[in-house]
Amino acid sequence: MVEYGTELFQLALRLVKACPENCDTSCYRCLRSFKNKFEHGLLDRHVAAELLEYLLTGTLPEFDEERLRNSTALLYRDLLRQDDGSIDFKAGATVKVAGAKDTEVPILAVTKSGKQFAIALSGPLTTDHPAESAMRELREKATELQFIVVNELLVRGNLPAATREIRQRLGD
After folding, report:
1. Are strands 116-122 and 146-151 parallel, antiparallel or unpaired?
2. Domain residue spans in the chain?
3. Is 90 helix (H, G, I), strand (E, B) or coil?
4. Which residues pair with 147 in a beta bridge?
5. pLDDT tens string for the chain (172 positions)?
6. Region of residue 162 (phi > 0: left; psi between -120 and 50: alpha; otherwise: beta)
């Protein structure tokens, strides 16, 4: 029984990781069917892959880098669109932190008072845990840099809520 379950999970993992359509979230070639039509908006093959890999290996896999970049760019553009001049946002800014090497953060926010915030995304299954290993390392060492970690699914599913959450955490 365990062998059959493992085989089924491995088959499902191959299907969602290598969708023939290379869809962004889900399509009829990987996860969608007529039977689940009311849940199509909730289906995401990248989340499925992360969960299946975790179930098969017991370790959290790295989240898809291209998707992280795209979601970060989407969030950055929305933060700029909502900008009222009170916070300076920079994409891909390099920060210098004592005891750590210079690191590029996905989004750097600097308030008028000079407070710096690194804005990073988490994978869907790891809320408040940066998806990128460089951000996890920097978070451990950087005492003068505050971190705001937003779930990638929130950015994809409800961008206004993600932007609002960040602005509230920045004290805006």
Report:
1. parallel
2. 2-57, 65-169
3. strand
4. 118
5. 456 578 889 999 999 989 999 888 899 999 999 999 999 988 999 889 888 988 899 887 778 888 899 999 999 999 999 888 889 999 999 988 777 678 899 999 999 888 999 999 998 888 888 999 889 888 888 778 899 999 998 998 899 999 999 999 998 5
6. alpha
CB distance 105 to 120 below 8 Å: yes
Helices in the chain by DSSP H: which ranges? Answer: 2-17, 45-57, 65-81, 133-141, 152-157, 159-169
Q: Which amino acid is at 114?
A: G
Two tokens, residue 22? 């290379």
Class of domain 65-169: alpha beta
Instruction: Give the position of tokens 């998806």.
Output: 131
Residue with structure tokens 């008028």? Answer: 112
Kindly report whether the global pTM for this prediction surpasses the value 0.85.
Answer: no
CA 54, CA 62: separation in Å to the nearest integer?
11
Rounded to 5°, the CA angle 155-157-161 comes to 60
Q: Is 39 helix (H, G, I), strand (E, B) or coil?
A: helix
